[in-house]
Amino acid sequence: MDAFAIRLRQERRRLGLNQAELASAGGVQKHAQLNYEKGTRHPDASYLAGIAEAGVDVLYLLTGRRSDPSIVALDPDEERLLVGYRELKPREKRGVQGLVAAILGSPESGNTGETPDSVAG
Q1: 1-15, 19-33, 35-49, 68-82: least confident range
Q2: What's phi and psi for 42, nearest 5 deg?
Q3: Per-residue pLDDT tens over the stretch 15-35
Q4: Which terminus of the chain, N or C, has less C-beta within 10 A?
């Protein structure tokens, strides 16, 4: 699964939408949404414009950078995890990334183009 597909699923979940609802916002069928989230197809600009209207951070989808960092407030558990992660050595960070990838059923983060240090920074 590519980074775009992972981020698309994250954004959908952040907004509390199911696949059919986000597909509708983007003007596509649920099957297309499923393909986008599996990484087997990539959407066009009209889809991105539609889901942006629904609250999706399209800059994040495309680049991995939030357009507004306050868009995602961390709960205390998430904040504790992030603080702890940032204290890890690069090798330990790779281990955490591998664990998360295994839990999510996706390839390790090495396919995102991010290094452990860029993820932490």
Answers
A1: 68-82
A2: -120, 140
A3: 999 999 999 999 999 999 999
A4: C
Q: Residue ranges per domain, the chain?
A: 3-71, 76-120
Q: Residue holding tokens 């959407």?
A: 43
Superfamily of domain 3-71: lambda repressor-like DNA-binding domains (1.10.260.40)
Structure tokens at 34: 């499923």
Long-range contacts of the stretch 110-117 (C-beta < 8 A, 24+): 111/2, 111/3, 112/3, 112/6, 112/64, 113/3, 114/64, 115/90, 116/90, 117/90, 117/93
Q: How far apart are CA 32 and CA 27, in angstroms?
A: 10
Q: How many CB atoms lie within 10 A of CB 1?
A: 17
Residue 81, token pair as written in the block: 């995890």
* Residue for token pair 């989808």: 61
pTM of the model: 0.59
Provide the sign of the torsion angle of the four alpha carbons 59, 75, 98, 10, taken in this order: negative
